[in-house]
Write a structure and sequence with these properties.
- The chain is an alpha/beta fold.
- The protein has 2 domains: 4-126 and 282-305, Rossmann fold; 129-281 and 311-340, Dihydrodipicolinate Reductase, domain 2 (2-Layer Sandwich), CATH 3.30.360.
- The chain contains 12 helices and 15 strands.
- It has helices at 13-24, 39-49, 58-62, 79-89, 103-114, 130-140, 162-168, 171-174, 177-187, 278-281, 283-299, 307-326, and strands spanning 4-9, 29-35, 53-55, 69-72, 92-95, 120-122, 147-155, 191-199, 214-221, 226-232, 240-247, 250-254, 264-266, 269-271, 330-331.
- The strands form 3 sheets. A 7-stranded mixed beta sheet has the order 12-11-7-10-9-8-15.
- Strand 13 and strand 14 form a beta hairpin.
- Helix 4 (79-89) runs parallel beside helix 5 (103-114), helix 5 (103-114) runs antiparallel to helix 12 and helix 9 (177-187) packs across helix 12.
- The longest helix has 20 residues, at 307-326.
- The structure holds nicotinamide-adenine-dinucleotide (NAD).
- The site of nicotinamide-adenine-dinucleotide has 23 residues, from helix 1.
- Nicotinamide-adenine-dinucleotide is lined by residues 9-15, 35-38, 41, 58, 73-76, 78, 96-97, 123, 125, 278.
């Protein structure tokens, strides 16, 4: 494929970021269409980026002849329907995470893709962050010996509204899924068991959705390695993603607080700014993941992160959610998948 023509479905925070990257910074790609029922947002972006086509209904974008590949950046509920239509129309797919909100849907998406020639990449962009990618190479090269412990902190500056939380799948499924992916990727192992705890300290209204705003998860990997994650919807200071991997012969730390390498010293105090949000912290990663996707389509290679990675990370997230509600360690793979008719304890049970 000489030049990949791409359409973006959903032009909110993530869709707009991908659209801007595709329109301006990726050789071999051309942004040809946008779809979103939010006409004002769509037309604003269309004018800014001079996009030829714009649709209210995403189906029209999928079936547009000029479109070779589709970026899915809609709310998670629409994933399966859009993937199904893309596969039928022969369009390659870049899907924002999570692959789906439940395992049954994720597996149906996996089956749809398995029976097709469609290339699919999942938006686990942290793997493309220069810091994380470098750390991964160092760990794989044996620089710190065998990785035995991963500590991971993941905090948003402030939490989403209850309306978002209600349909998000909860902290572990919606947000920590990135962290679970990082852990299995950096540790080069699968998670066997998790034990989670959490509470609502900043957003009491999340009780209505049975969700928490702060959580911790301990992980035990199949080969015996250990993990300790802490996640918060509200840091009170900015976006904070840091990771430490301890090996048998050293340690690697990834991440930083400051946006600019500048400290202001004044009146007996020193201060610096903080990273504002994920769009800023992972700016390079969002661009690199999309370059990778386009390159795979042009060269015929398989994207390095796919729906199976989404499935594995989701299995861990569901086990963590189950553990939170039962108060007991949970084997990954044993958690109830609500989409398959299972039930779990009442919302909020076992939560502070
Ligand atoms: N990789 C990351 O770092 C990251 C960060 C944030 C969100 N996400 C994921 O990206 C996805 C989008 O999140 P967001 O934060 O951009 O949300 P958002 O609410 O900002 O944007 C979603 C957009 O989808 C549009 N939409 C709704 N229904 C639609 C339909 N039927 N057809 C087309 N468009 C439709 C909405 O109008 C909105 O513009 C979510 O799945 C989320 O989990 C990923």
């Amino acid at each position: 494929m000489e030049r990949v023509q791409v359409g973006v479905i959903g032009v909110g925070r993530m869709g707009a970021r991908h659209a801007r990257n595709l329109a301006g910074s990726i050789s071999g790609a051309r942004l040809v269409a946008l779809a979103d029922p939010d006409q004002a947002a769509r037309e604003r972006l269309r004018a800014e980026l001079a996009v030829p086509y714009s649709f209210d209904d995403w189906r029209e974008l999928v079936h547009l002849n000029e479109v070779d590949a589709v970026v899915i950046a809609t709310p998670v509920e629409l994933r399966e329907e859009i993937v199904r239509e893309c596969v039928a129309a022969g369009k390659h797919i870049f899907s924002e995470k999570p692959a789906a909100k439940d395992l049954a849907t994720t597996r149906r998406i996996k089956e749809l893709l398995a029976g097709s020639e469609i290339k699919y990449q999942l938006g686990f962009m942290r793997r493309f962050d220069p810091g994380y990618a470098y750390a991964y190479e160092q760990i794989r090269s044996g620089r710190i010996g065998d990785p035995v412990l991963i500590r991971l902190t993941s905090r948003d500056a402030s939490g989403p509204p209850l309306s978002y939380v209600r349909t998000s799948g909860g902290l572990f499924v919606d947000s920590s899924v990135h962290d679970f992916d990082l852990s299995r990727w950096l540790m080069n192992d699968e998670v066997a068991t998790v034990y989670a705890a959490g509470g609502r300290f900043v957003y009491p209204e999340y009780a209505e959705a049975g969700d928490i705003d702060t959580g911790v998860v301990t992980l035990q990997f199949r080969r015996g390695g250990l993990g300790l994650h802490d996640n918060a919807r509200h840091s009170g200071f900015g976006y904070d993603i840091r990771t430490e991997v301890l090996g048998t012969n050293g340690c690697i730390q990834i991440g930083y607080f400051q946006s600019h390498p500048v400290v202001v010293l004044q009146n007996g105090h020193g201060s610096h700014d903080c990273v504002a949000d994920f769009l800023e912290r992972f700016r390079d990663a969002y661009l690199a993941e999309m370059k990778h996707f386009i390159e795979c389509l042009r060269t015929g290679c398989e994207p390095s992160v796919g729906v199976e990675d989404g499935e594995k990370a989701l299995e861990i997230a569901l086990a963590a959610r189950e553990s939170l509600h039962t108060g007991k360690p949970t084997a990954v793979g044993a958690a109830v998948d609500e989409a398959q008719g299972g039930t779990r304890p009442a919302a909020g049970e076992g939560v502070a």
